[in-house]
Amino acid sequence: MIKTEIYESVLFDTVKRGATEISPDVKKAFEEAIERESYPDAKKGLIATLESMEKSRVLQNPLCVDTGWPIFYFKVGNSCVLEGGFVELENAARRTVERATKMGYLRATMKHPLTGYDPGNNIGMNIPDFTYQFVEGDNIEISYAAKGGGSECFGGTRHRIVAFADGIKGIEKFIIDSFVASARAGAVCPPSVLGVGIGGTANVAANLAKEAACLRTVGSRHPDPMFAKIEEELYGALNSLGIGILGAGGDTSVLAVNVEYAYTHIAGIAVATSTNCMVARRASTRIKADGSVEKMISPMWFGDR
Amino acid sequence: MAEHYLTSPLTDANIKALHIGDTVYISGQVFTCRSRLQKYIFDEGNTLPFSTEDRNVLIHNGPIVIRENGEWRLVSFMPTSSIRFEKWGADSVEKWGLKMIVGKTTMGKKTAEMMKEKGCVHVSPRSVSPNLWIDSIKVEKVHLFDELGSIEAAWFFTLDKLGPFIVDIDSEGNNLFDTLDGDIAERKRKALAGLGIDSEFEFTKLY
Question: CA-to-CA distance for A169 and A173, rounded, in angstroms?
Fold first, then answer.
């Protein structure tokens, strides 16, 4: 049985790392973007952003002032046993978010949707958000993702039902149209990690898109060649547009395009997009059944990608 | 594209010299605001409890500031998206006598028209680099903390060459992002064509 004090301590460390430390795959994507950038001001902007991200690790300061919606993903072994069970895991996650907010790792950003009431701790109805995936084994893998307001509020996250009659062309056109509109003037904080969900009901597609944006390793490819081809085509197409960092011109508009899919109804294809901002904040930690703890360099939410 | 080092309060002459695409570094006295403050003043009929005369630069921002040993410490700062405050943009420029708004995601036509009439500009960041900027910002004090909370309060900052920012709306009403739209649309047309999606493509209308 994994003790409460162990998973609570892991939750805090994971939130703190997610808020303050750039992931190695995102850093590599930044370095590659800096290398190939031909617009001088965009190059300076990418360099300044990477410098700031490096400094936030040293200062233990947030990567961005908007510390986003607090979102937890738990990949749980079928035989995993937690002291207090999963209700206590969620309570511990809420306590962690409150503590991290008081300590300045998170900004008190979550408000009541109608009254605007700010509880000051990022805790409220259905927030933080929890998603579970069950697998073989007895470990638990805890991932924390921070979904920024810019990346979520300006049309980077949306969906459309595409008719089978329109097929792949309809899917790709919807994604490109959506991204261009949402990245205008840097609204979604490009270069983005663009997640795409294809198939399922609209909410399934939207969840897949968000998980593809927030959890997929940047630089990974879908193992199915049909979906890998869509990722490659969209990555090339979107980076040919000249939108660039914060929309003021540049060679890199997306750091990655990650596509995930579900089977769908004969009536139509739900297509959803979710942009993650350039800092693409997340962190993951594995706790084994014996209570030992391993930092993970990537969430590995979708198998090995 | 010229580079300008400006100190607030800004003058009309400072603003007239700025054109879209120019780079700006800002020093001097500024204040912060998010939508809650503009709603509090313009929709709810309250009065701004300070003068903006010697502080005519507004930064759309919700900083992280914590209290340490009786002093305010700025933990993080990044200009936020201005477009969501478009409803109050023109009023803010006119009634607060602003000469510059700092924010992401530019602003709309109404604000740009008022900026042209009154002589004001909007500038945008070129990076997401809060940890480089915090060293250029000194927290002076805060207004409306109890009423609006830490993020939405009006913070007074003194800046020391904070930047670089790019001028995206100038005092002639030009918008940098409008000038980029045409090129991006043309590149998009080519990108779609490359994927076999011609300009005649229409979605099957399902709803």
Answer: 6
In a domain, B97, yes or no: yes
Classify strands A129-135 and A69-77 as parallel, antiparallel or unpaired.
Answer: parallel
Q: Check A108 against B149: CB less than 8 A apart.
A: yes
ipTM of the complex in this document: 0.95
Residue B129 φ then ψ, to 5°: -130, 60
Ordered per-residue pLDDT tens for chain A, 305 residues: 999 999 999 999 999 999 999 999 999 999 999 999 999 999 999 999 999 999 999 999 999 999 999 999 999 999 999 999 999 999 999 999 999 999 999 999 999 999 989 999 999 999 999 999 999 999 999 999 999 999 999 999 999 999 999 999 999 999 999 999 999 999 999 999 999 999 999 999 999 999 999 999 999 999 999 999 999 999 999 999 999 999 999 999 999 999 999 999 999 999 999 999 999 999 999 999 999 999 999 999 999 99
* Cβ contacts of A55 on chain B, cutoff 8 Å: 131-132
A·B CB contacts under 8 A: 183
The domain of B59 spans 3-175
Contact criterion met (CB < 8 Å) for B197 and A172: yes
Of A65, A245, A278, the CB nearest to B62: A65
- Whether the bond between B130 and the residue before it is cis, its omega within 30 degrees of 0, is no
Residue holding tokens 């660039």?
A244
For residue A115, what are the domain limits? 4-21+63-148+281-296
